[in-house]
Amino acid sequence: MSSPLKPEDHQRIDAAITEIERRTATEFAVVVTRVSDRYSLYPMVWAGFGALLITGMAALVWPELTIRAAIVIQAPALIALTLLFDWLPICLLLVPKRVKHAHARQLAHREFAIHILGAGANRNGILLFVSLGERYVEIIADRGTHVLVPEGTWDKIVADFVATVKTSRVADGILAAVEACGVVLETHRSRTNEERG
User: pLDDT digit string (tens) for 14-47?
Assistant: First the structure.
């Protein structure tokens, strides 16, 4: 899974983030990851089931199949299926959506802790998190910012992002989401408002 962002896309996004941070009293971070987890257990489990199924079908076709012959069939099948199912695009198809989203959400919150909470004394911040493999997007804001923003604001930005990405414009979607978050932050966390408060 190759990165959909080119160096010039990174520059555009970084410039937009710098401008938002200049105008607002908020740290802003964007994390785009290819995948949130390798899901190593799923290829092995599915390969095990597949190898058992192949051996069972072989036993139906050849009722006189010995245990030794079954192992000779099952071992290579297990190895081949494990290698096949470990290929990331196939592996992601084997993992249930709720599991993928749970792993992506956990990574998003860890990234928020690193990039925003760990950024220093100013704990006001938001994170735009995108996990491409899981098709997962989340905007996480600190409590103070989250309380100021009307309900559904982040969901609307995420929905607009998803609509743009469906047209194969990932970089444009990220940039538009960054700019939309910037507008929200300027309204509720502008540097002049914070200085007055």
Answer: 999 999 988 887 889 999 999 999 999 999 999 9
For position 136, what pLDDT does the model report? 95
Write out the residue limits of the CATH 3.10.310.50 domain(s) in the chain. Answer: 7-38+96-196
Q: At what angle do helices 7-23 and 170-189 cross, to 10 degrees?
A: 10
As a whole number of angstroms, the distance between CA 6 and CA 171 comes to 8
Number of residues written out for the chain: 197
Measured CA to CA, the distance from residue 178 to residue 23 in angstroms comes to 14
Question: CA 160 → CA 12, 54, 88, 107, 145, distances in Å?
Answer: 19, 45, 27, 22, 21
Q: What dotted CATH number matches 7-38+96-196?
A: 3.10.310.50
Q: What sections of 27-66 are H helices per DSSP?
A: 41-61
pTM for this predicted structure: 0.86
Q: Measured over all CA atoms, what is the biggest interatomic distance in the chain, rounded to whole angstroms?
A: 86
* Residue 39 backbone zone (phi > 0: left; psi -120 to 50: alpha; other: beta): left
SS3 call for 81: helix
Q: What is the helix (H) or strand (E) element at residue 141, kind and residue range?
A: strand 136-141
